[in-house]
Amino acid sequence: MMKMLRDTRLMFIRNIQHTLRNPVFIFASMFQPLLYLLLFMPLLNGLHGVPGLPAGRAVDVFIPGLLVLQALFGSAFVGFSLIDDIRTGVIERFLVTPVKRPAILLGRVLRDAVVLLLQCVLITLVSIPYGLSVNVGGFLLSLLLYALIGVTMASISYGFALIYKIEDPLAPTLNTITLPLSLLSGIILPLTLAPIWLQDLAKVNPFSYAVDATRALFAGNFQNVEIIEGFAIIGVLSIVIFLLALRSLKKMAS
Amino acid sequence: MIDGIVIETKGLRKTFISKEKGGKKEVEAVKGIDLTVKKGEIFGFLGPNGAGKSTTQKMLSTLLCPTDGVAKILGYDLAEEQEQIRQNVGCVSQAGGADLASTGLENLVLQAQLYGLDISTAKKWAAEFVERFQMNSFIERPASSYSGGQKRRLDVALGMIHRPQLLLLDEPTSGLDPQSRAYLWEKIRQLKAEGVTIFLTTQYMDEADKLCDRIAIIDNGTIIVTGTPGELKSSVGGDTIVFGFSSEEIARKAQTVLTENIQLEKIQAIHNSVHLYAKDGERMMPDLLRSLDAKFLEVQSIMLSRPSLDDVFLKYTGRSLREDDRK
Q1: How many CA atoms lie within 13 A of B97 on its CB side?
Q2: Most exposed residue of A59, B97, B116, B201, measured as fewest CB within 10 angstroms of its CB?
Q3: B220-266: pLDDT as tens digits
Q4: Which of A10, A88, A254 sits opposite B95 (nearest CB)?
Q5: Which residue of A89, A94, A96 is in closest CB contact with B95?
Q6: Cβ A254–B64 below 8 Å, yes or no?
Q7: How far is CA A36 from CA A50, A63, B249, in A?
Q8: What ipTM goes with this model?
Q9: Do A142 and A117 touch, CB atoms closer than 8 A?
């Protein structure tokens, strides 16, 4: 256990150093949510009072979901960096050392989670001039949930990177996964507007629970059962997906 | 470790499942290899591309799981004691595996830490290797800026940083310029002198010949023959010795003298020279010269040529290793 912590710390430092060498990428992947904030949210303001839309101001409803979107897309493409490490033999070099196998992946997903949290805080700060009102305790708890979403998506990305080992099929695969997940999570428009079949479909999307949970947290409704649901579902999901990615890593050496 | 045996394999086999048109197909990359590598030797695994060299090396380094067979490395069981093998074996893959975005020094320190050294020891050992491999001038730069030779030096240092008893090198000098190659050979010999056992794969005959104490020639996943370079070459046939003389007459006299005095496989006078074929030309040379000297036959030139490992490969596979290279 001590060795696992030590190895994870070593791998985390190595990966965070890589990120800090090119910090511009941290901001580059924030571009999409900022565009939503700038060019799409004004539309929502215009829809105020339309039946089916949740009560409350558009910005308070939209931002928690926007951060889920950032967690989905911002972490989904980290697998490309792993392919680079596979190609240059770095992963094989790690695998012939006694380093704990989970540490190789944990060091990466934790780095990804840290980068994501930084992005979430920045986006939230930018939203304050738009009139965002947020419960601070709720926000901090939300960050934990965003981190878990980030870990889930990064693990999916690493898992496929380890299976494919080349770039070409990775991007289409990841797009095929992230797009329906985001459409079916009620981020852009609430699913209360959707026909029943679409609402049912959304119920099997774990990330729609995360959107509901973080909306409740931002509003400070800590009694809301959606919060527990969100944490439970995303918590279990992140562990399962991480273990699957770990299996791909171990399978690479078989 | 029993009797100073560092690597011992029995029937080591690896099959891959490859997907092709019309279903899956089993490809047998390594077809049952028996190998014994002794402590302190440089053991070469010589064969053309795709012979199964890298696959074998990856099995020995715990990167690939053998389909069948058993292996003991430094006395540890390959199937059961992978942790101990990883801790005590150093490994340099063909790709090298240096992290190109980081500096050489960062690579070395992290690698040492991954082997369990604390940060201050890791830095100390890394500095020692920088000194030893003369990497001072470039070690603080990102590895992406290194020349082929510099990168290779870093790769080998990464494999050695935890001071293993056994070093596995996969085609260490592949694609290097002659100078870098000679430098690396020198470093490998130094490691051997310090008692490190080295197992290396190569497709270069001169590398196997000059660097290795013993070699196994591998082709199509099977070891064809094992022995010292000298043994292998003499198994092909004898050496050729050519004495040059000042005239045909002297050459004929010399032929007579040599035939009378020494057991030779074959001897032939051609113009001013005498061609001899002998099993062990090197050792025979002094006797030959003495008997010529005794009859006052003055030798003007001597040439000794030995069979090459290519002749060995040709004998056992019916193909030339060089031909394979060109394909």
Answers
A1: 25
A2: B116
A3: 999 999 999 988 887 877 788 889 999 888 998 888 888 887 777 67
A4: A88
A5: A89
A6: yes
A7: 20, 10, 101
A8: 0.89
A9: no
